[in-house]
Amino acid sequence: ADEYGYDYEFLFKVVLIGDSSVGKSNLLSRFTKNEFNPDSKATIGVEFATASLDIDGKKVKAQIWDTAGQERYRAITAAYYRGAAGALVVYDITNSDSYENVSKWLKEMKDNSDANIVIALVGNKSDLGHLRAVPTEEAQNFATEHNLLFTETSAFTADNVDHTFKQLIQNIYEMVS
Ligand code: GDP
Ligand code: MG
């Protein structure tokens, strides 16, 4: 049992990566606490947050790691990736640079993680459709080509956030079980 008396059969480490300001911390707080923080400066970098899920009647715990702003300096260390079973590579649909940088994040991750890691590409800020800079179809095609799960989310409205995390964790579960 863990510190809350919760017994689990599977524990998966999941990491959040992607450029600064794409919404990684808010995706995590939306999923684990149903909270959104409009002021990025007020975002306090937590080391990780946990979520407990039932998958096929099994108790699964996900330990989801967030950066504390190191991504600004491209200084994410190997320890961050170590032991990760899954990753969410996040970009901002209104920021084409953040999408162009996805390839760099994928490379850094692959250099530092297990070959069988499950990866989800996530286009966040879907509520800002009027400012969209990255077409859905382009990102979807990239994801298909690179064997990544793909969704668009809004941490602001909560649209697709639960589904994105649960789908990733379900895919990890299916790979290891
Ligand atoms: P991080 O640097 O990747 O962790 O990004 P943050 O979670 O700190 O978010 C950066 C900024 O974008 C903050 O001002 C957030 O309020 C804002 N933000 C995050 N997610 C969304 C979203 O889905 N929609 C909108 N409109 N803003 C968002
Ligand atoms: Mg953050």
Automatic annotation (TrEMBL):
Membrane topology of this protein: Lipid-anchor
GO biological process: early endosome to Golgi transport; exocytosis
Cell compartments where the protein resides: Golgi apparatus membrane
Any Gene Ontology CC annotation: cytosol
Gene Ontology molecular-function annotations: GTP binding; GTPase activity
This protein's UniProt keywords: GTP-binding, Lipoprotein, Membrane, Nucleotide-binding, Prenylation
Recorded family membership: Belongs to the small GTPase superfamily. Rab family.
Name of the molecule in the record: Rab family GTPase
Organism: Pichia kluyveri (Yeast)
